[in-house]
Amino acid sequence: MFDLAARIADNLRRVREHIGAAAARSGRRGEDIVLVAVSKYVGPAEIRALVAAGCTTLGESRPQLLWERAEALADLPIRWHLVGHLQRNKIRRTLPLAAMIHSVDSLRLAEALDQSAGELLPDRRLPILLEVNASGETAKGGFAADDLEPLLPRLAELQRLEIRGLMCMAALEGGLDVARRNFADLRLLRDRLRENLPENIRLDELSMGMSGDYEVAIEEGATIVRVGSALFEGI
Ligand SMILES: *Cc1c(COP(=O)(O)O)cnc(C)c1O
What we know:
235 residues, alpha/beta, eight-stranded parallel β-sheet, 8 helices, 8 strands, globular, binds pyridoxal-5'-phosphate
């Protein structure tokens, strides 16, 4: 008989195994890598099965869906990450719900987040990642890699943000070799920026890798992977 919970638990176990193996190949442990399960393809029943299987860090790429799900699943101990583009008019509803925003892709958005965080999150700073257009594709969002260094002093003035790292998506074309190069480029950019970092910015996290390329991303230094479809195969 088809058993949704068993299928999802099995998928999760397999993804975690692959994460552990890739981490070992890069001299780390599987526990050092954060798995963000991207739930945009599935409904509440599948999400409940995933949480029951032990995965409680979830991601959505659309703010509206994150709001709906955070409300519908408020009884579960989920940490929600926003991994997709955030329009400024959606900031106020998103901030109280999001443990981390991966996709801060402009200075304007960072400034707006800083201002709202001051009002809505008086007790904590808002953890964010800066999205970098590592593949250089024109359709992709994110800071151009070369733009980031001159912007760091202005980003450092945003005291309500906790800037914790960089995020990227690999090029759509070119397969794993190109993806690996995109990920390696993001890590090199991070290493370069670290040489001259304002003191309230830390770039410890690299959010890179999705279902098709998370193992390669970990080999190239990812600390956070965002995996959707691989967790929901066969359901
Ligand atoms: C959908 C999505 C993912 C997960 O994609 P899969 O290929 O299904 O693992 C990761 N990151 C972002 C930004 C996404 O939009």
